[in-house]
Design goal:
The two termini are 31 Å apart. The longest helix is centred in the middle third of the chain and has 28 residues, at 90-117. Helix content is 60%, strand content 14%. The protein has a 3-stranded antiparallel beta sheet, covered by helices on one side. Helix 2 (50-62) packs parallel to helix 4, helix 3 (73-86) packs antiparallel against helix 4 (90-117) and helix 4 runs parallel beside helix 7. It has 7 helices and 3 strands, in the order βββααααααα. By secondary structure, it is of the alpha+beta class. The chain has a single domain (41-154), classed as Methane Monooxygenase Hydroxylase, Chain G, domain 1 (Up-down Bundle), CATH 1.20.58. It is elongated. The protein has helices at residues 30-37, 50-62, 73-86, 90-117, 119-122, 125-128, 133-154; strands spanning 2-10, 13-20, 23-27.
């Protein structure tokens, strides 16, 4: 059963993010993905590039706390990679993957640190508002596991 649906507006279209049993499934409508694979171009508002991901990485490295980023950044990066693959732009695909991996690692380290220090803070609206949709689901899953584990260790 789908617990939550989040519509992310990309390229004047909707990308659906479904949260079912604490699993995130990002669905790029088949028609949109097929159109991109067949030559349709992403609108400028939806485009991100390796330089945007590098900028976000720089910001995450510079600050000790997690920074707010666009909730649809991972979806937009995926759309960019689909478009680059279609155009056989191997270097662009590699750059996006590399920069996206770095961003995910930087943010995951901060997220896990917050959860380890104060699991309740990690589910505060203020903290969750800084996360992508995918990160928010991950945080909710991990916090639940950590809280159960702490209760077990403490014998409560």
């Amino acid at each position: 059963m789908i617990r939550e649906l989040v519509d992310v507006y990309v390229n004047s279209g909707i990308v659906r993010v479904e949260i079912e049993n604490d699993t995130v499934r990002t669905t790029i409508p088949l028609l949109a993905e097929r159109a991109i694979r067949e030559g349709a171009k992403l609108g400028e508002a939806s485009k991100i590039g390796p330089e945007k991901l590098v900028e976000l990485c720089w910001v995450e490295r510079r600050y000790s706390d997690i920074r707010q980023i666009p909730r649809d950044i991972y979806v937009r990066a995926r759309l960019l990679m689909i478009e680059a693959q279609r155009k056989d732009e191997v270097k662009l695909v590699r750059d996006v993957q590399h920069n996206l991996r770095e961003l995910v690692q930087l943010r995951l380290k901060k997220i896990l640190n917050v959860i380890a220090v104060n699991p309740d803070l990690a589910v505060s609206r203020e903290f969750l508002d800084k996360l992508t949709v995918e990160e928010e689901v991950l945080v909710r899953q991990i916090v639940s596991i950590i809280k159960d584990w702490i209760m077990y260790v403490l014998g409560l």
